[in-house]
Amino acid sequence: MEDEQKTRVSVDIFGQTYTIVGDESSSHVRLVASMVDDKMREISARNPYLDSAKIAVLTAVNSVHDYLLLKEKIERLEEELNKLKG
Fold first, then answer.
1. Is the pLDDT reported for residue 83 higher than 60?
2. Residue 45 and residue 40: Cα distance in Å, rounded?
3. pTM for the model
4. How far apart, in whole angstroms, are the C-alpha atoms of residue 86 and residue 78?
5. Which H/E stretch holds residue 33?
6. Exposed (0-12), middle (13-18) or buried (19+): which is 49, by Cβ within 10 Å?
7. Tens digit of pLDDT for each residue in 55-82?
8. Residue 24: CB partners within 8 Å, gap ≥ 6?
9. Contacts of 82 (CB under 8 A, 6+ apart)
10. CB 25 within 8 A of CB 7
11. CA angle 3, 4, 8 (to 5 degrees)
């Protein structure tokens, strides 16, 4: 029953079609897919000898790296905000 409420979106990432099922809006899913596709194409352009599996792993590593940097920045800003609040 829960599947009926989920959004199903077909997206193309690096020449492959995927059906993504989730709670987010279709526009959000398409944005995420587009960003992943862009990053994979960027990595592929710089490293044309890599196969798609390695490009996917490097894309994941880059994405998690960016996520951790943003998470650390948010934590620092929250600490500063808490200090200002007293």
1. yes
2. 9
3. 0.85
4. 12
5. helix 26-46
6. exposed
7. 999 999 999 999 999 999 999 999 999 9
8. 7, 32
9. none
10. yes
11. 75
